[in-house]
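(Deposited chain)
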Amino acid sequence: MVANKQQYPTLFTPLDLGFTQLKNRVLMGSMHTGLEEEKNGFEKLAAFYEARAKGGVGLIVTGGISPNFRGRLAPFGSELSKPWHVAKHRQVTNAVHKHDSKICLQILHAGRYSYHPFSLAPSAIKAPITPFTPKAMSERQITNTISHYGRCAKLAQKAGYDGVEIMGSEGYLINQFLCPRTNKRSDKWGGDFSGRSRLALAIVNRVREQVGNDFIIIFRLSMLDLVEDGHTLDEVIELGQLLEKAGVTIINTGIGWHEARVPTIVTSVPRGAFAWITERVKQSLSVPVVAVNRINTPEIAEHILSTGQADMVSMARPLLADPDLVIKAQRQQPEKINTCIACNQACLDHVFSNKRASCLVNPLACYETELVMRPATTPKRLAVVGAGPAGLAFACFAAERGHDVTIFDKSQVIGGQFNYAKQIPGKEEFFETLRYFDERLNDAGVKRVLGQEQSAESLAEAGFDEIILATGVSPRQVDIEGIDQPHVLSYLDVLRDHKPVGQRVALIGAGGIGFDVAEYLTTEEQLTLDESAWSERWGIDKSYETRGGLKKQQPERSSREVWLLQRKESKVGKGLGKTSGWVHRTELKSKNVHMWNGVSYKKVTADGLLIERDGEEQLIKVDTIVICAGQVPLRALQSSLEQQGRPVHLIGGADVAAELDAKRAIRQGAELAARI
């Protein structure tokens, strides 16, 4: 019998580094989880990385660890600088090495991005993302820092790491030295490119001197800064060549500074959008080069590798979403991968709020030792009413534990509110989550009853042991005079029923739903999958004629005029995601969407919406008014079932209807499934 031809041949070709070999071309990119600073966090971190190693990743890079106190990201951030730090790191390396994977420690000095008053930088220039102004480093502090990098790498080697990654991008210390934007020094560490690149090369030389030849050194090179006064392309290539001579084993790509006003990883960024710059730099280098950002399927990874754009691909969030991504691809089962939707809600938004990272579509991520799905001791017959995110998560986990699960929904399709979210431009990845749950329901043996509304009587007749209500939400009604007129629609009328909407529209409610509907109504073309059009829109200079790779943005225009209104006095969009909200606000602003706060709604008229703002009444003349004012839980079955003495559990929107919170819904479904 002839074996099936490998679907991703380049992805699973080993990479020979001379003194060692990587089993495939997948690098798990660095990502801070928050476990690094928790009590017993390294024990949990070991389980987190072991799951990814067991899942087939060739090379893992840890979250950023500082080489000294002043370089910490936060006052209590992790550093590796003392011999007694080694033991906790050894828990991680031992766990990973059980599964024929390799792991590198990322050494990261935050420079002016440090969120504490002891920060140092090449020059005393405050970053826009922290409240602290750094002190300019003295010559002695620079030479000490170089030594600290070498010491950190040596300690990493003692802890069993296979190598280190030196973080030279994303606007951290080394990147700050490299670019005239933040390096205003007049000594040998500043001035021309030779001076500005001196620190990066000195660090690599010191690290190589400390660890010897048979140790991986990755350098994360900022290939596209996306800020004014960043690198030129010639400087990027020259530095890459100098790093090769200094003994770097692999060059990883860095895209954008944290303060850049160009999105680099959110859902609306096309898959593989930055592989073009890796390809361009790779042509001038001889060491392996890694492509990064929005590579979330084995198909896009294989394309990048097979066309010669890179030698490896970096996946960070995709391996939060599915620790078994690599092995599923190797088994030629890509349809079973829990695809990262790049929402940032449970990963980066958590990290930047000093919370532990996890994953919206995989709540077990970073909770491998706490949210554990053990086989059920007493299997039960369970009914799940509602096939939205909460119901799907519960049904799959409960069935996988050994329970007999039936899921019901009055719709003919699974997905609940995800079926509306996936229509929003920039949220097309939600299709992948529904595909994944569809596969997983089948694999877990969950029975489906779709297209039928359930009653307490129908559920009672079936004799279930317990009933889980994941019935979701309905749009909240608002009490405004004239609200029952025909030109007033709910967001479901627009997204589910596709009722016609006029050219002038007022949206009542500026939460996540209001922003989604505004995006839906003002997007003329689906540009999210077209990388060139998207780059043009955001002002990315692919000709690289300017420092930092920026040019004038060419935002998409809209033929509709839209008002996004809220009662609150706070900034419109304040409650959106910490790392993605600014992207949504920028896109709508570019389409001339009016975002008004402090609005009182007086009356709906035939001509539009009468409001009061800043003490003055005014009529917004619109053709259509769309209600996006939140939701209320759907719990009609609860009291009837409880009167019958049935054990009933509420999860998702049926429990709490505050905005559409898939992160909480999926986690709640998983937590109930773990204990039922």
